[in-house]
Design brief:
single chain; 356 residues; alpha/beta; Aspartate Aminotransferase, domain 1; 2 domains; seven-stranded mixed beta sheet; 9 helices; globular; binds 4'-deoxy-4'-aminopyridoxal-5'-phosphate; transferase; cytoplasm
Length: 356
């Protein structure tokens, strides 16, 4: 039976990315060696990193003066590296959920953290608006897509301070004005690659300004200077990332990804709103995520939750159980998810409705 992969991350990747990576694991560039057996300093591997960096810059229209890094440690290590490198006195954070809170927690060890707004009281069912960002902060940190709660900032905020963003779960799903940011980071395991590599886009002249000593591995300067080769980078995930970047370009880039994401999410939200059995969890329609679509059973049908999960699972839906802090269902619709998978889920919802 065909599986429809709605996993929240690690998650669906384009089939050809998996096939090309599998091929290179068997034989890298006809070398007779596996991608898993070569040195990161092998002469054939440097072009992989160089092309991945170049495609990152091209696809996101990254201006001159920025570096693209491939590191380890996940987005979670960036929660700490960001304040280590950029927080001299004070930073502002927008509290939009679990990941934003974790980022704030790390920053508090380095200086004053101003929570400019929070939707915690409403279980993060919307993105706060109308807040003020103090003009004297070192940066303003946002989480552009809240993977757990299914809310998303669909445009770069208009503020007069440098931005830092966790884009783990919506990178390459829309155009971004990178010039507004000093740093954009994320775990690769949604729209880019298998788990194991972290991408960081960093503005070169924003680093090296804090007065504290930064351990070598946590200093962005180290990785900028060494082109992500200070220590052994995650070779296989970087290779897979390159295949995804090539795929992205061939498909038409981030504008096309945005068009597809909107199409998929419009279809699914329309069904959630129409179907009497279900209810979307995000209260502000403009904040509904294109990537993680969260819904629960309508109050009168609460007792059907386990039945629907079983029904949908039997029809090939994978990974639609909601995160424990929201409950219900979450259909993650990342770049590689075909529209047919969304239609298959909608068919399930309609068939289940007819049974009740
Ligand atoms: N930020 C966001 C928005 C996420 O969705 C996740 C993981 N799902 C993280 C951070 C943490 O990423 P990692 O596991 O790579 O540390």
């Amino acid at each position: 039976m065909k599986k429809h992969n709605f996993n929240a991350g690690p998650s669906i990747l384009p089939r050809e990315v998996i096939e090309k990576t599998a091929q290179a694991i068997l034989d890298f560039n006809g070398s007779g060696l596996s991608l898993m057996e070569i040195s990161h300093r092998a002469k054939d591997f440097q072009p992989v990193v160089d092309e991945a960096v170049a495609l990152f810059k091209e696809l996101l229209n990254i201006p001159d003066g920025y570096s693209v890094l491939f590191l380890g440690g996940g987005a979670s290590l960036e929660f700490c590296m960001v304040p280590y490198n950029f927080l001299e006195k004070k930073a502002a954070y927008l509290n939009t959920g679990t990941w934003a809170k974790k980022a704030m927690k790390e920053a508090k060890a380095f200086g004053e953290v101003v929570e400019v707004a929070s939707s915690a009281d409403a279980n993060y069912t919307f993105i706060p608006k109308g807040y003020e960002v103090p003009s004297d902060v070192d940066y303003f940190h946002i989480t552009t897509n809240n993977t757990i709660y299914g809310t998303e900032l669909h445009a770069d905020p208009e503020v007069n301070v440098p931005l830092v963003a966790d884009m783990s779960s919506d990178i390459f799903s829309r155009p971004v004005d990178v010039s507004k940011y000093i740093c954009i980071y994320g775990g690769a395991q949604k729209n880019l690659a298998p788990a194991g590599v972290t991408f960081v886009i960093v503005k070169n002249d924003a680093v090296g300004k804090v007065s504290r000593h930064i351990p070598t591995m946590l200093d962005y300067q180290t990785h900028i200077e060494k082109g992500s080769m200070f220590n052994t980078p995650p070779v296989v995930p970087i290779y897979a990332a390159l295949q995804t970047l090539r795929w992205l370009k061939a498909q038409g880039g981030v504008e096309e990804m945005q068009r597809r994401a909107k199409l998929r999410s419009d279809m699914l939200y329309a069904e959630i709103d129409r179907n009497k059995l279900f209810r979307g969890t995000v209260t502000a329609p403009e904040d509904r995520s294109y990537m993680n679509i969260c819904f629960v059973m309508a109050d009168e049908y609460k007792e059907l939750e386990a039945d629907f999960l079983k029904f949908a699972t039997e029809k090939g839906m994978v990974g639609i159980k909601g995160h424990r802090s929201v409950g219900g269902f979450r259909a993650s619709c990342y770049n590689a998810l075909p529209v047919e998978s969304v239609q298959a889920l909608i068919d399930c919802m309609q068939e289940f409705e007819k049974m009740h």
